[in-house]
């Protein structure tokens, strides 16, 4: 249910902000179908003004197809707009720590190289975050395959995309 998802996402946003991880943009992409469009107002009411709800139009190309993903995926980008993590089910369930840990790593580390938009003075906030989160994610990170694929349940990007 997208209402439970949006409520949990709001809880995660507040938790991260309270830990000092600020200036993170959150976007929920609503499905194109008529049922989802009719429920748009309920979805928007279930999140704060700090989470953008994007409504796809029926005629446009599906955002998830364009991003090589599915509607339940989380795509985590760094400050320079580079994809750092692409998490699919079951890793995208907010009851698991993977989304939170992926956001923390994207926030604190330069996995895709230096970014000119790095926040000053994040060292204190990030001191222990990346070590703990990286250890958790390395347990489930897929081994490198012979080709580049966006269809892993957890896909970690190490290069500019």
UniProtKB/TrEMBL annotation:
GO terms for molecular function: selenium binding. Residues 145-161 have a biased composition (Basic residues). Keywords: Glycoprotein, Secreted, Selenocysteine, Signal. GO terms for cellular component: extracellular region. Residues 4-161 form the Selenoprotein P N-terminal domain. It is found in: Secreted. Transmembrane segments: none annotated. InterPro entries: Selenoprotein-P_N (IPR007671), SeP (IPR037941). It comes from the Eukaryota. One of its GO terms (biological process) is selenium compound metabolic process. It holds the Pfam family SelP_N. Residues 139-161 are annotated as: Disordered. The keyword Secreted applies. This is SEPP1 protein.
